[in-house]
Amino acid sequence: MGDERHGDPKHSGAVDPVGQGGVDTFTNPGLPPHPPRITDVDPKAEKRAERQVMVLFIISVIGTVLFFFGYFGVGHTGIEIGTKLRLQNTLIGLGTAFAMLGIGLGIIHWAKALMPDHETAELRHEIAPESQRAEAQEIIEQVLEESGMKRRKVLRNTLLGAAAIAPLPAIFMFRDLDRSQLGAHDMVDRLRHTMWSEGVRLVRDPSGLPIKAADVQLGSAFHVIPEGLNELHEGKLNEKAKAVVLLMRLPKDKMKVSPGRETWNVDGIVAYSKICTHVGCPVALYEQQTHHLLCPCHQSTFDLTQECKVIFGPAGHALPQLPIKMDDEGYLVAQSDFQEPVGPSYWERG
Q: For the chain, which domains are there?
């Protein structure tokens, strides 16, 4: 039995039940007092905040200009290709970062320091097509006035300038992805032909040292390029992107060789394109125990014992195999170019 001496909630008075003489309503306390910001009471602080916002917008403009300098200007300099590529990537990255951060931080600082920050609560109601159009226009005018877009012309103009050119870097970068003017057959032809041909030696990347068959042991993996690639002055990166291969040695009893490929390996030494057939990322991870190759971008997995057949992931095609042989000096050389286009499987698309 309940006893108020022991804290029975029904009789101790600790609980005030609703509808039994207790208070079942409460007064809306309203919004808390609004503390003014320093920019609301100090004209100098307001001017200082305006200058800060303007500087951020100008930084955004400078970032966009920096992007275009790196994108278009660096390519015409006479510096070597490696340094040129690093400088170009640095300028493009910094330019894009400053362009986006400048305009983003500028808008945030404007809103927090200069735009009205008082809280309001309004009932939601439908706006009639005609009768309340004037009221809606008045609200818009009030927003523009409170935001300072009309009276702060310098801020408004720098914002418009930064916002107008900030998207241009993205437009130019996405434009470079458009290869429609080449046509599907042109795309395939560009990926079908590489620097590999009959008699071209397999050399280590990046040293350029030729590889003997005796150098390739079970479980080892070599990153390989065609001999002569390092001596190219123009188009070196494009050629390397297509021609780079992985060289490994397997126990011959674990290899499943398709008809017609019996002579494409040298005593279990095989060479496969390093370019993933999904979107072209470099396949660089070799698991010795399972003989699997892994693309780190989207985890496509290729089984080396089954001629790099896809066993997991989004890749839609096995890695192309490079036919190799051993020359009279014991060095590994190519028998021919790849027998199919390398890289993403464009040739399988309609």
A: 38-175 (no CATH), 188-348 (2.102.10.10)
Burial of residue 313, with CB atoms counted within 10 A of its CB: 0-12 exposed, 13-18 middle, 19 or more buried = middle
pLDDT digits (tens, 9 = 90+) for 172-194: 666 665 555 555 555 566 677 89
* Omega before 206 within 30 of 0, i.e. cis: yes
Among 316, 304, 313, 307, CA closest to 345: 316
Query: By C-alpha distance, which of 172, 171, 158 is closest to 59?
Result: 158
Contact 272, 308 (CB under 8 A): yes
Residue 350 has pLDDT above 50, yes or no: no
In angstroms, the CA 173 to CA 93 distance is 12
Residue with tokens 């390398």: 342
The answer to whether the pTM exceeds 0.85 is no
